[in-house]
Amino acid sequence: xxxxxxxxxxxxxxxxxxxxxxxxxxxxxxxxxxxxxxxxxxxxxxxxxxxxxxxxxxxxxxxxxxxxxxxxxxxxxxxxxxxxxxxxxxxxxxxxxxxxxxxxxxxxxxxxxxxxxxxxxxxxxxxxxxxxxxxxxxxxxxxxxxxxxxxxxxxxxxxxxxxxxxxxxxxxxxxxxxxxxxxxxxxxxxxxxxxxxxxxxxxxxxxxxxxxxxxxxxxxxxxxxxxxxxxxxxxxxxxxxxxxxxxxxxxxxxxxxxxxxxxxxxxxxxxxxxxxxxxxxxxxxxxxxxxxxxxxxxxxxxxxxxxxxxxxxxxxxxxxxxxxxxxxxxxxxxxxxxxxxxxxxxxxxxxxxxxxxxxxxxxxxxxxxxxxxxxxxxxxxxxxxxxxxxxxxxxxxxxxxxxxxxxxxxxxxxxxxxxxxxxxxxxxxxxxxxxxxxxxxxxxxxxxxxxxxx
Length: 454
Ligand code: FAD
Ligand code: NAD
Prior knowledge:
By secondary structure, the protein is α/β, with parallel strands linked by helices. Helices cover 31% and strands 26% of the residues. The strands form six sheets. Strands 1, 2, 3, 4, 5, 6 and 19 form a seven-stranded mixed β-sheet that branches. β1 (5-10), α1 (16-25) and β2 (30-34) form a beta-alpha-beta unit. α3 (47-64) runs parallel beside α6 (181-192). Nicotinamide-adenine-dinucleotide binds next to α6, β12 and β20.
């Protein structure tokens, strides 16, 4: 019989491959089971593909209007086929990196579906075939797109993010159902590619869990770029229109309206993926399909843990990896090293959005007395010279102690700069301490100094 593993990880996304490498680096015998590609949703159908396509789309739209920078370009065009080639190059290179990381750490990788037979046995099937013994199991099987039960969901041209990211065509008109993170990133991509985009969002604002001012500003900016945004609107049906078009019928303020387009993207959230995971007779406590875990990521079965999207918490790649590191530390009897109290959230629109800690509205709702500082990036040199002067940095601090409690920014490089505030909040820094640092000139980060000192 094969040697017993210390840990079998099921799913090789940013939760699973990080957990496997981390556990193996402690000298423990580790297996990783994956039924698609290493890297999971994040690398193959999520973060990396969207941002690669977005990079091409933004460059394309910038080149078209670069005359005022003294650059003359005669003819510009782009093709999704070419962009897809670039996307494949990037994802392939990163996948090879994960493969190497697994080899270096001596993780046994099995390609197939992992099914838990009992708390110490996992079967691999549908690819490689094996039955493996283990002390612990970590479930990291991620999530898949939700498709709501709206009539017409199965029509050709009605796609989820997986399909749209693999598409080799650019729909001239795209209707997006859902004004959340995926919806807004695709609205940015497609409008930059020159498509006519319509967004239909059920709630009364887009990016509903972000700072209100950010939602309002983004809506305004996208509208100026020709994106139609309908909030407080419920999609009732999608049907076939003339000439191969799709008609998305939605009710907005009691009025029935239609959006006609060649493609419809459904981006209304993601559900936990537990397909093929639980063997006959093996059960775990679940809440509407999500695996329930305690504060140490342990499920209702001792020795079986779960992290990442499958637990249905915050569905972000960096959260998944952080939970993986903590869970592995806990299993090894160590202290969990990552503080999970402040998870930064980023949206890769143009301008970018970064948020961490609480917003002014949340502070008010929680009865916390705060001061809010705001700095407009139109006054920042780097923003102006690079033509990205739109946006602002907002900082929320305790009104008595001046300890920073939150920050929200909507500006160029917001997704990079937000980490300064994450570090500040986790370490209890005040406005004055954040302001005591020299930030180089000219940089976008100078806006942080101005915001905290202002
Ligand atoms: P996944 O990445 O979903 O990985 C799970 C893996 O397990 C998959 O490879 C799956 O095939 C495999 N698997 C499932 N069941 C089994 C089984 N029984 N046996 C073997 N293997 C199995 N997050 C960010 O932080 N930043 C972003 O910019 C961002 N952009 C995104 C854009 C899009 C379009 C989407 C869809 C998501 C995006 N996300 C982003 C979210 C991010 O991708 C997820 O939060 C992250 O991938 C979750 O990681 P995970 O390891 O939990 O699961
Ligand atoms: P989401 O929860 O962010 O947004 C879904 C939106 O769809 C919500 O605003 C919701 O009100 C709306 N909606 C739901 N049903 C609807 C209906 N029938 N009609 C109209 N609107 C409807 O989900 P998402 O955008 O699908 O993203 C899924 C997950 O992927 C998110 O949890 C997010 O964290 C992650 N993600 C992260 C990033 C990033 O970090 N930059 C990028 C993409 C995705």
